[in-house]
Every structure is written in C-alpha cells, then in structure tokens.
Amino acid sequence: MPMLRTAARGRLVQAQINGITIAYSDQGTGLPIVFLHAFPLNRTMWATQEKALSSQFRIITIDLRGHGESDAPLWLYTLEQSADDVNALLDQLAIQQALFVGLSMGGYILFAFYRKYAARVKGLILADTRAQADTAEEKDGRFQMAQTAYKKGPSAIADIMIPKLISPATIQTKQDLVQQVRAMIEGNQISGITGNLMAMAERSDSVPLLSQITCPTQIIVGELDQATPPSDAKLMAGEIPNAHLAIIPGAAHLANLEQPTTISQIVSSFASDLARKAKS
Ligand code: MLT
User: Fold this and answer.
1) Do the Cβ atoms of 125 and 218 come closer than 8 Å?
2) What is the distance of C-alpha 118 from the center of its chain?
C-alpha cells in the first residue's frame, strides 16, 4: 500500500489503511513502542511520553480511526476494525513485534488486537482501562452521548467528558491541561465520536482472555480514576499471569497527562527490561 506522505520520521505521516487515511507519528530508533490513545482524544495526548522516550526507543503514536487527523468516515467502527488498522500500519512500517501501550479505549483495542495478532505483541501496558464489556445501562449512556454529539457537537462532549477524565484538583489548578484536552476533543468530527461510541458499546467481554495473555504485562491506573477505577485494574492484574500493577497517586483517568513523568518512567523501565531480555 502506498503512503500518502512519506514525511521524515518524527513528523506527522499519513498512510492509506483499510480504505481511509490514518495519521501517525514515528520517532526514534530501538524497540518499537506503539501508543493507542483514549476516547475521544488523539495521538498528541502522548506528546510528553514521546519526547521523554524517543531518544531510547522507536515511538509510534496513532490517531485511531475517527480521531485527530485520521479520517472519520461514517462507517465502519468496531474495535476489531481499529485493531486491523494498527496491524496494517505495522505491516507498512515493517515492524514485526512491538510493545503496545493503550489507555482506556486504547486498552480495549489492545484486547481486540491480542485476540487476532498475539504474535506481534512483545509486551503490553494497559493503562486506565478495563476488561469487562459495557452493561446495558452503560450502552444506553453511550447512545445518549452519541445523540448529544449529533445535536450539539463535540464541545458538548468535551463538557461531559472532562470531569470524567481529569481529577477535580487538576481541573482547578491546571487550566492549560484542561484546555489541551478540550481542544483534542473539539478537534474530532461527530462521525468519529458517534462511531467510536458504538464500537465501545458493542465490544466483547475480555475477562475470559486475561488468563491467556502470556506476554509481559504492566497495568497502570490513576488512584482517582472513576471511569475505570483501581478495582478494574486489580481484576486484570489478578487474572493476567505475572502482571505488575502500578497505582498512580494524584491521577484520575488520563494518568499519563496528570502524572506524565511517572508514566514515562514506568514505560521506560518496562521497555528497557523487554529490550534487555530480547538481547540475552
Ligand atoms: C476513554 O477514556 O477511552 C473512555 O472513557 C472509555 C470509555 O468510555 O469506556
């Protein structure tokens, strides 16, 4: 498949993947680390980690379909489709295996990815995510949110989502961070927001998968995360063989934005261990 733009590594590149344009960034050399963002943000939520880690590792951040600078077609949105997009991008980049980091919806997509493409997964970092499917009530909430997006647009979604994503203390004291998150949400198209809500509502229960995950796994959760609370992280840590769990003080759902240095350090040390084991 041809690339639309083959910009130098580190800058935005767009690729034709499964019939749509997918935007991504590819920076650094070494063990590839692929970062998948939360809903309804974009790949720039990983900017601090990209900066901190790209001197040691090859950092790939992707705008998942329906987000950021990737296309937001009217269909098709399933988490399996997003996993297929990631897989096809890795084919284009000639990356056989990588460490994958997924936060929240990014984590849901990693479960779908692992089901289909486990051989590509050298290690997993599951941040502020959960393995359970939606309840009937949660599915209904997604439908209501899709209606709000359709009627009132992305800024109404930002109003609803920001208090779910960031801790009250950060909302009070770090207006620049709040504005950064708001701009990411408002930069999305309604088709992408509604399509991804439907995809998350329809996702499979991944709890039965957990005991079959055989790669090294790190779980991260903000201690104040209410969307995917520490109890969800403990469930994953209890079921995935030999998984490690880190609970991050002073962070809610977007732990990598509220405690960027701590998260970069955890990813760096996990990735260094993986790279060392691969050499020995
Ligand atoms: C996310 O951060 O990706 C979303 O909050 C996930 C969800 O709504 O389940």
Assistant:
1) yes
2) 17
| 80 Cα: distance to centroid of ligand 1 (angstroms) | 16
Residue 98 alpha carbon to ligand 1 centre in Å: 23
Model pLDDT for residues 22-44, shown as the tens digit of each residue: 999 999 999 999 999 999 999 99
Is any ligand 1 atom within 6 A of the Cβ of residue 227?
yes
Alpha-carbon 30 to chain mean position: 21
Establish whether residue 105 lines the binding site of ligand 1, counting it when its CB lies within 6 angstroms of any ligand atom. Answer: yes
Ligand 1 neighbourhood includes 35 CB (under 6 angstroms): no
Is there an atom of ligand 1 within 6 Å of 220 CB? no
Q: Can you tell me the mean pLDDT for 172-176?
A: 97
Residue from 235, 242, 244, 177 nearest 213 by CA: 242
Q: Which residues pair with 112 in a beta bridge?
A: none
Q: Residues 141, 230: contact at Cβ < 8 Å?
A: no
Point out the ligand 1 atom lying closest to the alpha carbon of residue 164. 5
Higher-scoring residue by pLDDT: 218, 11: 218
CA-based torsion, 205, 211, 216, 217: positive or negative: positive
| Separation CA 39–CA 12 (nearest Å) | 20
| Cβ–Cβ < 8 Å for 197, 142 | yes
Q: What is the pLDDT of residues 188-226, one digit of tens each?
A: 999 999 999 999 999 999 999 999 999 999 999 999 999
Quote the CA–CA distance of 215 and 17 in Å, as a whole number. Answer: 27
